[in-house]
Amino acid sequence: MVRTCPFDPPEEYRTLREQEPITPVTLPEGTAGWLVTRYEDVRKILTDPRFSAKRRFARTGDPTADDAPAPPPPPGSFIVMDPPEHTRFRRLLTGQFTVRRMKQLTPAVEQIVTEQLDAMAEAEGPVDLVQAFALPVPSLVICELLGVPYADREEFQWNSATLLRLDASFEEAQAAQQALHGYIRRLAIAKRANPTDDILSDLVRTGELTDDELAGVGALLLLAGHETTANMIALGTMCLLRNPDQLAALRADPALMGGAVEQLLRYLTIVQFGLRRTALEDVDLNGHKIKAGSTVVASLTAGNRDAAHFTGDPEQLDVHRPYGPHLAFGHGIHQCLGQQLARVEMKAALSALLDRFPTLRLAVPVEQVPMRDNMLVYGVRELPVTW
Amino acid sequence: MKIVIDQDRCVGAGQCVLAAADVFDQRDEDGVVVLLDALPPQESQSQVEEAAARCPALAIEVVAE
Ligand code: HEM
Ligand code: SF4
Fold first, then answer.
1. Which residues are near ligand 1 (CB < 6 Å)?
2. In this structure, what CATH number is given to the domain that contains residue B14?
3. ipTM score of complex
4. pTM confidence score
């Protein structure tokens, strides 16, 4: 499936959702699975304990890619765990990411945003918004929160990007995973000796996790914490620039920003290939027989454009629309742990960017903006802008 | 309208707090939902229903009286 517009999912999703909302598919790695495209069904899969989060990722050359059970989760990687293991890790962390904690963090995030914009304003356009702004802001924030030196960013940004590349080979992905793990593991061991004021040190202090588990948790937070938000900031900016009426409405009434962020999350749904789950037993899904062990892909992208669920026209971006629950952060017990942080970051970044550069515009024709078509997290590779 | 929460199910996503801050809060230690008002006034009904609909862990139940 290919996109015909940078902001819209491939057409096939709509056809499938309307005609065959639960459909057998061949997954990119060659095995058989199912694709689910309706909002209600996506929510159903993601809240049904018969569908396990232990899953196989699409990797070319994965020697284990057959009908064997999904591999056991790497230590600490709770995104691919089921309860009670998942609960154990998630509970250790949720206190760090509450709505209140994230609101308290807002001034610090705004400070980081301002510094990046100051630096950007000193350059003469055009600049690449990804490298100058969208990537540094969430990277700086998550580094600060976790206690990871920002100076090491090249290494972790590269490894994270490799893990998110659909065409990374099994070996490449494993090497990147191990590098990221090793890096956080060394850091965690250093914090054991010299704790500082950050999440990694707090986790060390609980005494509940082994070094490998700490490394797994830290690597997950670091990866999930910067790639996603960075892409929402850059793609969100491009989308607003291409929707001048929406941009004007937002500039005229900055109070709309909270709702606009939710709409951008829904409309762009950057976790573009959906969420994988594995059936633990034979499941009858609206008359379809899903066999135990099968992979089911719950399409967030398709579900988030489901006209049967959303009022108004879900194919349109409308910053005035009231916020109904969308699927951009997933659903069920794995729903994004960092979502309140992501909201704070997106609001701060987009508000300040629009404010600071009233004449912000693309510096190249839109067709020349390189898109992240082969990345698990969609977005732009670079975004040349000027003002 | 009466609200019942299931703290064991809660995954601390904070959707309920965003939807109805007068009714729901999160514990500082572990982010688990706490009910500020189990019998909220009728005016907050739609917000509470929104919170229950958004909760990813199905941890909030609204019981009609
Ligand atoms: C706009 C930005 C973001 C988007 C669109 C996003 C999206 C998602 C989605 C769809 C999931 C569900 C995965 C699944 O069920 O398999 C998820 C989980 C997760 N996200 Fe995010 N995320 C964002 C930002 C963040 C940030 C800033 C953090 C920082 C800590 C973060 C940390 C996590 C973690 C740790 C999980 C796993 C939760 C669990 O398994 O219980 N995310 N995210
Ligand atoms: S929305 Fe549900 S899971 Fe999230 S904090 Fe509230 S009760 Fe817990």
1. A 53, 78-79, 90, 220-221, 224-225, 228-229, 232, 270-271, 275, 328-330, 334, 336-338, 341-342
2. 3.30.70.20
3. 0.90
4. 0.95
